[in-house]
Every structure is written in structure tokens, then in C-alpha cells.
Amino acid sequence: MPTSYPVYLDYAATTPIDPRVLEQMMPWLTTHFGNPASNTHAYGWDAEEAVEKARAQVAAVIGAHPKEIVWTSGATESNNLAIKGAALAYADKGKHLITVNTEHKAVLDTFAYLQTQGFEVTYLPVNAEGLISIEQLRAALRPDTTLVSVMAVNNEIGVVQDLAGIAALCVEHDVLFHVDAAQAVAKVDLHIDRIPVDLMSFSGHKVYAPKGIGALYVRRKPRVRLAAQIHGGGHERGYRSGTLATHQIVGMGAAFALAQSEQLTETARVTQLQQRLWAGLTEALPALYLNGSAEHRVPYNLNISFAGIEGEALMMSLQRLAVSSGSACSSASLEPSYVLTAIGREPQLAHSALRISLGRQTTEADIDVALDEIITQVRRLRELSPVWDSQTNTLIA
Ligand SMILES: *Cc1c(COP(=O)(O)O)cnc(C)c1O
């Protein structure tokens, strides 16, 4: 890595491939290049065996049967297949769907599309903590509701929804439950014995596997029907056609197995780093605000707003850090993040938010660089700010 590169604290946007994962992928790109669908020779048989081993590794993270895992190109495609696939397959039963207004765009845009196709969608609000209310969900359920979709861990603010509570309600009302778990693998409990979901989306590149690979869990008992969204060849039990990318799949399996085996030690390690960062910032700087629940959140994320300064100016001045303002997807536009707006942040504070996301290569030294950089720059920008009183260290009313 060039020494001029900033400290990477944007693991919620993407992660590097773990070298241990890459090592397992390499043979499947060169000598072991067979098509897993070729059933007449060893090239194909070996590739198929590797694909099935990886399927079992992904299934093991949530206690599923390997046959319940469908390979896709990423969580965007998994969300599309789950939501459109289920909405269409159950349209004879009803055309009402429920989701949450802080979901990832891959979910929200898919529901918006379904609204153009005659479906009705209820978007649940979240409270100031970023969490939905089970009672509001209960009230939104109708006889013609077929699907509820709620993410496990929010990609911008890191909050964890009450999946077990939502799942229990969906079981009680015989409604399908889909979870976008792209940010949740090896971070929160996703075991289907405790969280009986019907559909769950995963992404490789959020878990130290390559970009361009993902998976969808599709419950077999009771069987969930899905209308395929990609046709041709009938791969993946007809749910998702296309030649399987063996090397990507092997990488995702290896990465999920690794993340699962290291979950406890890694969570403990990152929790310490998060606490070091939060304590350092709150000791040095007044008027900063944690976005999202302090209690129901993963240790891998801190999303913080700083009173009295402009987000753009802050981002530009943090030259030693690679962090995000809100979500990577919306950082091209100057609209305040819809997630921060949904938790009730006023525009000025929403605009001054930083998403700092920690990961496998984050060290204590990285946190100390982040502390030094953020404290120095926030102080400097507040000195220059017309709305900040540096004598009293408060906003000018
Ligand atoms: C990254 C992400 C996605 C999209 O995943 P891709 O594999 O990049 O398509 C979907 N949902 C959430 C919550 C994410 O964080």
C-alpha cells in the first residue's frame, strides 16, 4: 500500500480480500478452471465440489441447510431476487408489502419499482435511535400483506433491529420475512433457529471476500416460492441462471467460515477500538452527537455529527483518513443522508456527519491517527465557523 494512502476506516463500504481467502481462490482461476455444471469430466466435478463446500460454509453461519443457499452477484441482486421474486410469486395471495424507510437503496429502489407494478408498500418510520417499533409493524400488517423486509444492521448508522421480535410477529401472521444481512455477518446472531426468517441476503465484499459475489438464503421448510429474475439454463434450482463463478464462490465460502471462526475474538477487539475512539472524541470535543442507538449497535460503526461545521469542509480536511459522510452511495449528492433525516437529525447536523467503520486491519495506531486528525480538524473548522463561539465552545444561537 502506498505510504501516502490514508488510514482506511470505511469497512462498511467494502473490505479488502483477506489474504487467506485469496490463497484459496487462486487455483480456481487457473488450473482448476472447470465449469461446475460440466458433469462429464474431473474439471467440472472438482469445481462442483468446491462450490458445494462453499455453499455449506455460508449455510453454516446461519444454521441453514446448504441447499437453501442460492449464489448471486451480491446483496443487491439477492435483495432484488428476494423481494421481487416473493412479491410476484405470492401476488395471488396479496399485493401489500412492508419495509422500513432506512433500508439500503437496493431494497428501497426495488420496492419503488414494485409500486409501479401494482403493489402497495408501507414504509415504516424509525425512532430517534434508528429502530422500528414492533407495535407499528403489527399495526401495518393487513390480510393482503405477503412480505416484510427489514435489514439486520444499518449500513450508515450501524444499528441492529430486533430481528427475533419481527420474525416472531411474521410467523404469527403467516407473512414472509426477508432480511438484508449484508452488514451483519459474524457481527450479530443470524441463526435461523433463533431468528426464523424466510429469506436473507448476503454480500461477499463486506466480509473480506471479493466484490461481485453474494448469496440468498431461501427457506425450504416451509418452502418459499420465488419468481426467478434471471432466466437461462436453470442453474441454482431455477432461481438464478448463469455459470457459477467458482473462484468467487470459493472466496465467499472461505471468508464466511473465517469470519464465523473469528467472530468472538474480533468483536472483542473491535469493541475496544470503538470505545477508544468514542472516548477520545468525547473527551476532546464538545457538541458531538452519536447517530443511531448507542445500545443496539455493532462495534464496527460510529456515525457522528459535529455541531458548528460543514460536512464537506470536514471531509476535505481529513486527509489522513478514508471515511464516509453518511453512505458511500449518497456521498456524490449534497442531499443530507435520508437515514440521518429519518432519525430526526436537522439538516446542519446531518450534513456534518462522519461514518467511521472499523474492520479486520484496524489497529490501535489507526484509531490514534483518527483521533488526532478529527480533533485537530474539527477544532480548526470551528475556529473559522461563523456559527461557533470558540470562547464558550458552543453554537451561537
Ligand atoms: C453493501 C450493501 C448492499 C449491496 O451489496 P452488494 O454486494 O454491493 O450488491 C446491500 N445492502 C446493504 C445493507 C449493504 O451494506
Describe the secondary structure blueprint for this structure:
Elements (H helix, E strand, L loop, with lengths): L6 E2 L10 H7 L16 H21 L6 E4 L2 H15 L6 E5 L4 H11 L4 E5 L9 H7 L4 E5 L13 H11 L2 E5 L18 E5 L10 E5 L27 H16 L1 H22 L3 E3 L10 E6 L4 H7 L3 E2 L15 H5 L4 H5 L1 E5 L6 H21 L3 E2 L4 E2 L2
Parallel strand pairs: 1-11, 3-4, 3-5, 5-6, 6-7
Antiparallel strand pairs: 2-8, 7-8, 9-10, 10-12, 13-14
**Major pleated sheet:** 7 strands, mixed
How many domains, in number, for the residues?
A: 2
From N to C, what is the helix and strand string? EHHEHEHEHEHEEEHHEEHEHHEHEE
What is the fold named in CATH at topology level of the largest domain?
Aspartate Aminotransferase, domain 2
Mean pLDDT: 95
| Class computed from helices, strands and strand pairing | alpha/beta
Q: Note the total helix count.
A: 12
Return Rg in Å.
22 Å
CATH class type of the largest domain: Alpha Beta
User: What general form does the structure show?
Assistant: globular
Instruction: Quote the distance from N terminus to C terminus.
Output: 46 Å
CATH H level of the largest domain: which superfamily? Type I PLP-dependent aspartate aminotransferase-like (Major domain)
CATH architecture of the largest domain: 3-Layer(aba) Sandwich
Attached small molecules: pyridoxal-5'-phosphate
Kindly estimate the percentage of residues that lie in beta strands according to DSSP: 5-15%
Which percent range fits the helix content? 25-40%
